[in-house]
Amino acid sequence: MNKLQLAVVLLALSVATDLYAQQSRPLYQATQQALDTLSRAEIARENSKRGHSLETVRKQFRLAILQIREIEGKLADLLRQAYQQKPSQRDKDDWTVRELESLARNLKLQLARAYRNQALCYPVASPDRINALSLALEQLPEIITLPLNDASVWQARLEQIVCLRLLKKHSQATKLIERWQSASPPANIASRLANEKIYLDLESGNLTYALAHKDPALLRYAAASLYSRGELVEAVATYDRIATLEAAQGHANRKFQALKTAAAIVRERKRPGEALVRFRKLALQKPPHDEDASVHLIAIGIAAELARDATAEGRGETFDQYVILLKEHLQQWPKAPSARKVQLWLTRSELPEIDRQRAQKLANQGNRRQALALYRKLITDAPNDAKLLETYAQLLATGKDKTELQEALRVWQTLEKRSKPGGPRWWRGRRARLALLDSLGEGGQAKKLRQLTKILYE
Questions:
Q1: How many domains does the structure of the chain reveal?
Q2: What CATH number did the domain enclosing 338 receive?
Q3: Which residues make Cβ contacts (< 8 Å) with residue 49, sequence separation at least 6?
Q4: Residue 123 burial (10 A CB sphere; 0-12, 13-18, 19+)
């Protein structure tokens, strides 16, 4: 509930603060309880964007609607009694007819608000969404036609416009905005009407004015529209701008969410390096945020993908980056739920690297047998590691044992098949195969392979 809505409701309730009879106190308390339920449901709906169950939120809105409906029934009974009573028959502490009517109108307005929020829990254009918005609109005609001095009238008009927009009835909504703008609305209402006009423009594809605005809420709407249209670069820039505005207004969580969304879109654009930098920077920024560790975990995942997909020349650097992020995570969030998982990843990533270094050291020292045994163990765990296979094949080819030379030939043949024809590793594999065929006394096969290579690639 925004401040204006809250003020309207509290005004209606406070009119009779000093006039509550014993019979009316439960009604006041029930109204407060219903509005609390509705406010909590609205907060839960916002949280649902971060993974909370929408079905749970729908139940909360259904409860709020049920509570308001029950109060309406009791209020209708009180109104009937009040209409039948003569002024002289009323107790001085009873609600007046005017007070009861004011509360009834405001309950209608809150019921419309509840139905509209309930609609937002369903997919766009779904029957449930359309039904909830239609029920919201049904609550408003009686209020909209009241004299303008009634505080609930302008709120009802705004609610009607919002519901029409959500129903994609843009023409009707636009006509109402123009009509109410010409009726000299209060300043706060005029601002809301202008915002609704911008939302309608956005849904119609006209983003120019909205993007020039400094209202983060409008910019979020514009960014979402840009994203849905596939204009991802512009969407990222808009979310970055939203983050700057939210930071200036002291809204740390909104800033965080805007930057997180921007990073996710960058990742979707297949720019993993930039996405990694964004997620890591966001996780480490100050002040701390509840989602820091989970965001840093996303950066680790991207680093793992980069290391896995890197070429032989770049694998060392990307793997080092991955390990650095694992250690950084444990240093920054040692007690986070993710710490145990990250520790396991770190152990698994460091052990193979240590074994690689040991194998290389053994080979350099002339301990070929031990080095080859260790390389075979590493290849069993990482059969698709091209760099590892190439190093193993090179070591095999340095010996004179026929079995080892034949194994080297098979490994190079495998690498050649997995490499891009004509690429650097492919050529290394082809030359190594030719040399090994000669060493194994397979001159005929070597000759045919040379001729084929010359025809196709030279």
A1: 4
A2: 1.25.40.10
A3: none
A4: exposed
- Please check the confidence at residue 433 and state whether its pLDDT lies above 50: yes
- Average pLDDT of every residue of the chain: 85
CATH code for the domain of 458: 1.25.40
Q: Residue 266 domain-assigned?
A: no
| 311: pLDDT strictly greater than 80 | no
Inside any domain, residue 392: yes
Residue found by looking up tokens 């991802």 in the block: 232
Please say which residue of 259, 282, 299 terminates a domain. 259
Say how far residue 26 (Cα) sits from the centre of its chain.
Answer: 42
Q: How far apart are CA 418 and CA 307, in angstroms?
A: 18
Residues 217, 222, 226, 232: is their CA dihedral positive or negative?
A: negative
Phi–psi pair at 398, nearest 5 degrees: -80, -10
pTM, to two decimals: 0.51
Q: Which amino acid is at 172?
A: Q
Instruction: Please give the single-letter amino acid code of residue 41.
Output: A
The verdict on 189 and 225 lying in the same domain is: no
Cα–Cα distance measured from residue 147 to residue 111, given in angstroms and rounded to the nearest whole number: 21
- Residue 401's domain comprises 384-458
Other CB atoms within 10 Å distance of the CB of residue 345: 18
187 shares its domain with 216: no
**217 and 293 share one domain:** no
Query: Would you say 152 and 146 are in contact if contact means Cβ atoms under 8 Å apart?
Result: yes
Whether residue 443 is found in the same domain as residue 300? no
Same-domain status, 443 and 348: no
Give the domain-ending residue among 203, 234, 249: 203
Q: Please name the residues in contact with 276: beta carbons below 8 A apart, sequence gap of 6 or more.
A: 299, 302, 303, 306
pLDDT over threshold 90, residue 385: no
CB 163 within 8 A of CB 133: yes
CB 137 within 8 Å of CB 112: yes
8 Å CB contact between 115 and 65: yes
**The total number of residues written for the chain in this structure:** 458
pLDDT digits (tens, 9 = 90+) for 184-239: 888 888 888 888 887 887 777 666 666 677 788 888 888 888 888 788 998 999 99
User: CA–CA separation, 131 vs 230, rounded Å?
Assistant: 30
Alpha helices, DSSP H only, in 212-271?
216-228, 232-248, 252-268
